[in-house]
Structure formats: structure tokens, C-alpha cells
Amino acid sequence: MKNTKQLVLSGIIPILIIIGWYYVTNYTNTPKAILPKISAVGAAFVKQAVNGQLTADVSVSVKRVIEGFFFAALLGVTMGTLMGMSLTIRSIFMLTLNTIRQIPMMAWIPMIILWCGIEDLSKIVVIVLGAFFPIMVNTLSGITSTPQGYIEVAKLYRLSSWKIFTKVYLPSALPQIFVGLKLGLGIAWMAVVAAELIASSKGIGYRISDARNLMKPDIMIVGMLLIGIIGILMDRILSYIAKKVTPWVEARRA
């Protein structure tokens, strides 16, 4: 019953948006070049799906996101853990990483393209740079918020550093780590689309940019909707994994 209510409530705003969109495009003088009809967007989606363009663009962008997100997660969790467990490592890297984190992602893209070209490597580097920081920061927060009493008990039993990490730090930090992973995944999508908009010959971002140049807003909206839908699906998958890996979090909420 609770899930049904949540499902109904979550559908209110999308339904209102669709109703408003239908009204504006059918009963006002809004130019089609600014906002196309829902039917036109649907037709563009079908056309791209039939000719294979949709599958090609989605597969390219998803591949880039998965590869970049994997490296960002690996680096972010590792660095956050090391900085959280060692004050020395934190002192060495914190100032530099905080400085880099303040530079907007869009400012990095021209330089990364200059270094790595316009092929997949530059997109993956942009994704890693964008997704790394929320993962690292949340991992660091999770590690440093581990109750000191647990750590002292582990040291009292003379556990190795690895066992202290796996038995004490990691279970305590996992909820925060998954928060960082979910934030990083969202940024990964923004990063790949931004990179593809600027310099690419394939992918969803490229298709949106190409449609803009050709004044085809229906194709642009198809690309935007695809990004949102795929992003939600990937977020749900990550949430499902988080529930399975951290069942005690759900138990506390219940």
C-alpha cells in the first residue's frame, strides 16, 4: 500500500508536465521550432529506433559512462579510504584535491580534449574527473565518522590494518560510500553529455548538439529524455545493490 501511494505521488509532476506540454503545443501559438508536439517527439523516437541511430548513440554514451564511472569509483573509494584512515595522507592531498575540486568541470573539457583528443579517452577522463570528487568526499566522510570506540576495540584485539578496514571502517562507511556513488553516477552522465556536446562524432550528447544545429528540437528532446530514463535506471540498479550490501540500513529505517 505504501509503495503504491509513493508510485502515485511520484507520477503527479510528470503527468502535469505532459498535460502542460500538450496544452501549450496544441492550443497556443508556440512555434514548433521552440517546443514540438508530443507526437513529433514520439515520431522522432520511433524513426531513430528503427534506423538504428538510437541504439548506436545510447550504446556509445552508456559505454563511456560505465568505463569512466568504474575508474572514478575505484580511485574515489581508494583515495577517500586512505585519507580517512591516515591523517598524514589527508594532510598531503587535501589542499590540492580541494583546489582542483573548485574548478568547474566545463573548464577542464577544452584542456582534456587538447591532451587526449576527441575520441573516447577524453570523454572517460572528463567522467572520471567529474565523478571522482563526490565519491571521494563521501567515502572520506564515511570513514572519518566511524565510531572511535569500534576502532579502539579492534586495535585492542591487535587486528591488522586490513582487518580493521574490512571489519570496522568499511561496514560503517558503506552507506556514505553508496551516497557518493549515486552522486558520482549522476555527474558522470552530465560529464559525458557535456563532453559530447563540445567535441564528439557520436553519442547522445553529439546527437543533441547536431539536432540543435539542424533546428530539430524533437530529436533534442528525445536525447534529453533518454539521458533521464537511463540515468534513473542506473540509479535504481545502484540503489538495489546498496540495499543488498547494507541491509542493516533498511532495518534501522523500518
From TrEMBL:
Keyword field: Cell membrane, Membrane, Transmembrane, Transmembrane helix, Transport
Annotated transmembrane regions: 7-24, 69-93, 105-133, 177-198, 219-242
Claim: Transmembrane is one of the keywords in the record: yes
Protein localization: Cell membrane
Superkingdom per UniProt: Bacteria
Presence of keyword Hydrolase: no
GO biological process: alkanesulfonate transmembrane transport
Chief localization: membrane
Recorded topology in the membrane: Multi-pass membrane protein
PROSITE patterns registered for this protein in UniProt: ABC_TM1
Protein family per UniProt: Belongs to the binding-protein-dependent transport system permease family.
Official protein name in the record: ABC transporter permease subunit
Organism: Anaerocolumna sedimenticola
